[in-house]
Design brief:
- The relative contact order is 0.16.
- By secondary structure, the protein is α/β, with parallel strands linked by helices.
- The protein is globular.
- It has an eleven-stranded mixed sheet, sandwiched between helices.
- α1 packs across α2 and α7 runs parallel beside α8.
- It contains eleven helices and eleven strands.
């Protein structure tokens, strides 16, 4: 077991389904114990309750690592769910920066819960990790970007949780260039693709041919900049977003990656095709982070309805990246 990589899992909000899906994963060790050890960082009490519901025979829960189970928990205590999830992320990045773990897999958290707990205001999960990475790895700012994976369908978002009315003003050449640069590095250096192909979707209908300026003024200049840095990468676009997904097969897509300027523009086809098997991968961090592709689902928490497949898929992608 000592030779296996250690994966940190943060279940997320205790009021959501995070502890429940984490318990489901831990109770199926045959799917992971021969490839990794797991350290869960979060509320011991919340996880213990979830474990008991998953397996009522589990009345003696040992916090220490076990050669038989292959996992342990680092208990995080807080006054509110948002504080626990935030402190768990702090500790998770510390574990990885200290080389005690190889990757981070995250469960869902809620921005509302963070605000209720008076945690430092950020845009969300990814930004918290970026701030923690800056504390431990470098004084340089960390600019992460969200990618998603299902089968061979790889998707990069140029904007995250931005209202549609603000997408155009959020896009700019430096940020788009950096996002494309991170994608090219991931494809060529981490996935070892020799001549990856990347399609960039247009911001406007029909790729901007009937109106709009973002394709001409932002996307094309950014593409030209990154093409010069990664001549082995073949770019296409900007393409009409609707036509790009006609007859799309995620097992054999026409491109190695697709870039979507807007959140729903990319995530509707990703989640339609991938369902709970879709996994988020954060590019631009100095460590591997994957995540479930769903929210806290507080309305079904504790009812035994939560599906853990996205968490299993996130663990698979993290192991593959290691």
């Amino acid at each position: 077991m000592a030779l296996l990589p250690t994966i940190v899992i943060t279940p997320g909000d205790t009021t959501g389904i995070g502890p429940e899906i984490t318990a489901k994963l831990l109770c199926q060790p045959s799917r992971w114990h021969h490839r990794c050890q797991i350290v869960v960082i979060g509320s011991h009490d919340a996880l213990q309750r979830a474990l008991y519901k998953e397996d009522p025979k589990n009345t003696q829960f040992d916090r220490r690592a076990s050669a038989q189970t292959g996992w342990q928990i680092i208990d995080i205590v807080g006054e509110a769910p948002g504080e626990i999830s935030y402190r768990a992320l702090e500790r998770a990045v510390l574990e990885i920066a200290s080389r005690r773990a190889a990757a981070l897999v995250t469960g869902p958290i809620s921005k509302l819960r963070l605000e209720q707990a008076l945690m430092p205001l950020t845009s969300g999960h990814t930004e918290i990790l970026a701030a923690q990475a800056k504390n431990h790895y470098s004084s340089e700012p960390c600019i992460p970007n969200m990618a998603f994976v299902y089968e061979q369908f790889r998707l990069l978002l140029l904007t995250r949780h931005v209202p549609l009315s603000k997408v155009s003003t959020t896009l700019n050449i430096p940020d788009v260039s950096e996002a494309l640069r991170q994608l090219c590095y991931w494809l060529t250096q981490k996935l070892n693709l020799q001549a990856p192909t990347v399609a960039i979707l247009g911001v406007n209908p029909h790729g901007g041919e009937i109106g709009g300026h973002e394709e001409r003024n932002i996307l094309l200049p950014a593409m030209a900049t990154v093409e010069a840095e990664f001549p082995q990468v073949v770019f296409s676009g900007p393409l009409a977003a609707d036509a790009a997904f006609r007859g799309f097969n995620p097992k054999n897509p026409p491109w190695d990656a697709i870039v979507a300027p807007a959140h729903d523009q990319g995530l509707i086809p990703m989640k339609l095709l991938g369902g709970l098997q879709a996994v988020q991968v954060t590019l631009g961090l100095p460590f591997i982070r994957t995540s479930v592709s769903h929210g806290t689902a507080e309305d079904i928490a504790g009812k035994g309805q939560a599906d853990a497949e996205s968490l299993f898929a996130a663990l698979e992608v993290a192991l593959a990246m290691i």
